[in-house]
Design brief:
Elements: E1 12-16, H1 21-36, E2 40-45, H2 47-53, E3 61-65, H3 70-73, H4 90-98, H5 101-110, E4 115-119, H6 125-132, E5 136-139, H7 144-156, E6 172-173, E7 182-183, H8 189-202, E8 207-210, H9 214-217, H10 219-229, E9 233-235, H11 246-251, H12 260-268, E10 275-279, H13 288-301, E11 304-309, H14 320-326, H15 331-334, E12 339-343, H16 348-352, E13 357-362, H17 366-374, E14 379-381, H18 388-398, E15 402-404, H19 425-436, H20 441-458, H21 464-485
Parallel strand pairs: 1-2, 1-4, 2-3, 4-5, 5-8, 8-9, 10-11, 10-13, 11-12, 13-14, 14-15
Antiparallel strand pairs: 6-7
Helix pairs in contact: 7-8, 7-10, 13-19, 19-20
The structure holds uridine-5'-diphosphate (UDP).
Residues 20-22, 25, 253, 279, 281-283, 308, 345-346, 348-349, 365-368, 371 line the site of uridine-5'-diphosphate (UDP).
Family: Belongs to the UDP-glycosyltransferase family.
Keywords: Glycosyltransferase, Transferase
InterPro entries: UDP_glucos_trans (IPR002213), UDP_glycos_trans_CS (IPR035595)
Length: 487
């Protein structure tokens, strides 16, 4: 019997995520968008990271592993991802990731796919894709808004504020940009250099896959991007919306330290919009003094909370003396009805999806932002590193779905510049009250809920991201068929 006509055959696409939760989680979810349409998605990663993906394996969603060079970089076995749990070693994990090129290349060359989607941190995939004559798509986990902002820095020589400038009145405007955006913090120079290099290779790729939806980034940024860079962006997100059941949401990412049932039981006992969720992603490691300010700020606001701290910070069995370095005396006892502290990995998507959660105090990591937007949860923005200060502006100044806490120190994700300027308890209390007390917050909440609706529509049949995915799949099939006809 004859096989299916070639254009009906499923595509074979390889995904090569970088070894950090903020890169790995969304790219694997995007891979599942393709596999949910019957195409074969293969994640190429290391064994410990493969474990995290096991719950989602299916006929169309595969994993190929290559060993992580633990010995070569001097890491204990099993530490293969950057996270707050092993935060002292992000550079070693990075070095290990750079050594994966050889085994990954070998696998791809021996089993060439129809297309490869790779994190922009792996620019070598460009040469490989060219050699195999297959299209390569880049992914960096930023919204297009932030990609454009970085591009503006590179193209226009935006003024960079002095690193030691403590004058809170200093500011600059992003040049040649669709909106008038005033910034009070500028990216560290070493970050600008790295991003410029990586973006250069990214622009040589066939296109950029974006974990966002057109309505949030805005048509104006898509046009601006295409006009200034000549490159095409494909908005396919929000990626987290591939997870529809509570179980799937709870199992996404690393293993949570609290059970799904425990979490839901606690949230079910709270009134709608009464709980502030606080989490600063997988890489942030605040000093004790800063945690202390957060504790004072949330307690003074009087609102309920779920506060995620790194397991390094808050071990269950820590001494009272150690605890009092980051938590005011008697804090947990006084707040035992109002709030919980999660020490380690929390089931974030599950929590954000609960009606009791009324606001999210976040570092504006793009995944956290997408997850909050998808659930219609307004944000209190506290950017720390990478592209997060640009994300803050998209959330607060452009789309009006969050308030700024007033953070001004832009660190480097890998810790090469670590400056401490505390965000004070009063700033935190004020921002929480702005959003969660009755009043001004209502309008922001309404906007957030509207964007939540748009986010969910985007990934449904006929929505912008759903249509983009269909168009991209058709495009890739045409490329593949054209190639097979001419080879
Ligand atoms: N995350 C989580 N539980 C945690 C911490 C993080 O589920 O306790 C997830 C979060 O939902 C998001 C990702 O880890 O999907 C973090 O990515 P983001 O871009 O927000 O921040 P990064 O970790 O890259 O700074």
């Amino acid at each position: 019997m004859a096989g299916p006509r070639i254009e009906e055959q499923p595509l074979r696409i390889y995904f090569i995520p970088f070894l950090a939760s903020g890169h790995m989680i969304p790219l694997c979810d995007i891979a599942r968008f393709f596999s949910s349409r019957g195409h074969h998605a293969t994640i190429i990663t290391t064994p410990a990271n493969a474990q995290i993906l096991h719950p989602f394996l299916s006929d169309h969603f595969h994993i190929h592993t290559v060993p992580f060079p633990s010995q070569e970089v001097g890491l204990p076995d099993g530490i293969e991802i950057m996270s707050f749990a092993n935060h002292t070693n992000p550079i070693k994990v990075f070095e290990g990731a750079m050594l994966l090129r050889g085994p990954m290349e070998l696998f791809v060359e021996q089993n060439p796919p129809d297309c490869v989607v790779a994190d922009f941190i792996f620019p070598w995939v460009d040469d490989l894709a060219n050699k195999l004559h297959i299209p390569r798509f880049a992914f960096n986990g930023f919204p297009l808004f932030a990609v454009c902002a970085f591009y503006s820095f590179h193209a226009n020589n935006n003024p960079v504020l002095d690193d030691d400038d403590d004058d809170s009145n200093s500011s600059y405007v992003i040049q040649d940009f669709p909106h008038h955006i005033t910034m009070k913090a500028s990216p560290p120079k070493d970050l600008l250099v790295v991003v410029e290099e990586l973006q250069k290779t990214m622009f040589k790729s066939y296109g950029l896959i974006v974990n966002n939806f057109v309505e949030l980034d805005g048509e104006e940024y898509i046009q601006h991007y295409e006009k200034t860079t000549g490159h095409k962006a494909w908005h396919l997100g929000p990626a987290s919306l591939i997870h529809t059941t509570e179980k799937e949401k709870a199992e996404r990412g690393q293993k949570s330290v609290v059970s799904m049932h425990e979490c839901l039981r606690w949230l079910d006992s709270k009134k709608p919009n009464s709980v502030l969720y606080i989490c600063f992603g997988s890489l942030c490691d605040f000093p004790d003094k800063q945690l202390y300010e957060i504790a004072c700020g949330i307690e003074a606001s009087g609102h309920g909370f779920i506060w995620v701290v790194s397991e390094k910070t808050g071990k269950e069995d820590e001494s009272e003396e150690d605890k009092e370095k980051w938590l005011p005396k008697g804090f947990e006892e006084r707040n035992k009805m109002k709030g919980i502290i999660i020490r380690g990995w929390a089931p974030q998507v599950l929590i954000l999806g609960h009606v009791a959660v009324g606001a999210f105090l976040s570092h504006c990591g793009w995944n956290s932002t997408m997850e909050a937007v998808s659930e219609g949860v307004p944000m209190i923005t506290w950017p720390i590193h990478s592209e997060q200060f640009f994300n803050e502006k998209l959330i607060s100044a452009v789309r009006g779905i969050g308030v700024e806490v007033g953070a001004q120190v832009w660190n480097h994700a890998m810790g090469s510049r670590k400056r401490e300027k505390l965000v004070g308890r009063d700033q935190i209390e004020k921002a929480v009250r702005r959003l969660m007390d009755d009043g001004e917050g209502e309008e922001i909440r309404m906007h957030a809920q509207e964007f939540g609706k748009k986010a969910r529509q985007a990934v449904q049949q006929g929505g912008s991201s759903h249509n983009n995915l269909t168009a991209l799949i058709d495009h890739l099939k045409r490329l593949r068929d054209h190639k097979s006809l001419h080879s």
